[in-house]
Specification:
The protein has about 230 residues and is α+β, with helices and mostly antiparallel strands. It contains six helices and seven strands; from the N terminus they run ααβαββαββααββ. The strands form two sheets. The chain has a five-stranded mixed sheet with strand order 2-4-5-7-6. A two-stranded antiparallel sheet has the order 1-3. A hairpin with a 2-residue loop joins strand 6 and strand 7. The chain is globular.
Length: about 230
């Protein structure tokens, strides 16, 4: 087995182990909680952490089945999908005392994508961003027209992404889970999952490095189909 594959397995194991450790700590804290509000808060955290862990496990299972023809492309309302992700993650951002701002300026409303795979990509971008924002620097989920594509991006205010990973994403050669030492809150596994899903959808995954943070984006082909329900 190549060293890259071994490192990828270790990164995946670490990212999957982390929420289990958090859940163990929360379970122990729940036993010690002596008032109902505290117990409810801890129970809410347990649900949130477990849902995120199951989300990642489900995504890994999807990667193994990408070539089975189960994830067909279709016209997707990108704004509606981003609204779904924002609603799903609102309790987590609220609990962490963080904010996710939404900004939609795209004139092309439909993209060619798979709903489940694109949902996971945007979800992973947002859960990474939560580590790198505060009340003064909210994360931002944006949808814009970019050249002949629809670009969905998530802006955070964390450390810059290492040049090696930045180049791999630009060149489409990011093929194994990779530890991101400069961004300890980021999930190398989540970025790998997003990269694989983008490749399957024939979309372009990329990164913009700012002086005060990073934007992760996915560029999607525009659908020429129109809809009355967006």
């Amino acid at each position: 087995m190549r060293s890259e594959e071994v490192n990828g397995i270790l990164v995946a194991a670490h990212d999957l182990k982390a929420p289990l450790a958090v859940m163990r700590q929360l379970a122990l804290a729940l036993d010690l909680a002596d008032d109902q509000p505290t117990r409810q808060r801890i129970q809410s955290q347990l649900v949130s952490v477990s849902e995120r862990a199951m989300h990642q496990v489900n995504d890994l299972a999807k990667i193994a089945r990408l070539e089975d023809g189960l994830f067909e492309m279709e016209p997707i309302s990108v704004r509606n999908l981003c609204d779904e992700v924002a609603r799903e993650l609102h309790p987590l951002f609220h609990y962490k005392n963080r904010r996710l701002d939404l900004s939609y300026s795209n004139r092309s409303r439909l993209a060619i994508a798979n709903h489940d795979l694109l949902h996971s990509v945007v979800y992973n971008f947002c859960t990474n961003a939560i580590h790198y924002s505060n009340q003064d620097t909210a994360s931002r989920l944006s949808v814009i027209d970019f050249q002949d594509k629809i670009r969905v991006s998530v802006r955070d205010f964390g450390p810059a992404l290492p040049s090696k990973i930045w180049r791999q994403l630009r060149q489409g050669t990011f093929r194994t889970p990779t530890s991101i030492a400069m961004r300890p809150g980021s999930s190398g596994l989540g970025l790998y999952i997003s990269s694989e899903f983008a490749r399957h959808m024939r979309a372009q995954l990329g990164v913009i490095r700012h002086r005060d943070g990073t934007s992760f984006f996915i560029d999607l082909p525009v659908s020429t189909q129109t809809s009355l329900f967006i």
